[in-house]
Amino acid sequence: MPYYVYIILCKDGTYYTGYAKNVKRRVERHEKGQGARYTRIHKPKKIVYVEEFNSRNEAMKRERKIKSLSHSEKQQLVKIAERT
């Protein structure tokens, strides 16, 4: 079963990055305030990036890599994904 890394654009312009088996269900939890502490404080606006992986381990590695990016680097990643 695949895992996904996703980026949520929050209403304050920040990004939240996470991973999940079911992105739709996970984002619904964020929207209800049942997700990460970060998204309880920085309310989610929309999903702006999704990437699929074959294993949880691969998804976790990618999530860590994306989380280490600066805000502008995340913006670039999102822009590139929007073009494809």
Outline the fold blueprint.
Elements: E1 3-10, E2 15-20, H1 23-31, H2 37-41, E3 44-53, H3 56-67, H4 71-83
Describe this structure in words.
This protein is an alpha+beta fold. The chain has one domain: GIY-YIG endonuclease (3-Layer(aba) Sandwich). It is 46% helix and 29% strand. The chain is built from 4 helices and 3 strands. The relative contact order is 0.24. The model has no long low-confidence stretch (mean pLDDT 96).
Order of helices and strands: EEHHEHH
User: Helical region count?
Assistant: 4
Mean pLDDT: 96
List low-confidence stretches.
none
Distance, first to last CA? 24 Å
CATH class: Alpha Beta
CATH H level, superfamily name: GIY-YIG endonuclease
Helix percent reads 40-55%
- Secondary structure tally: strands: 3
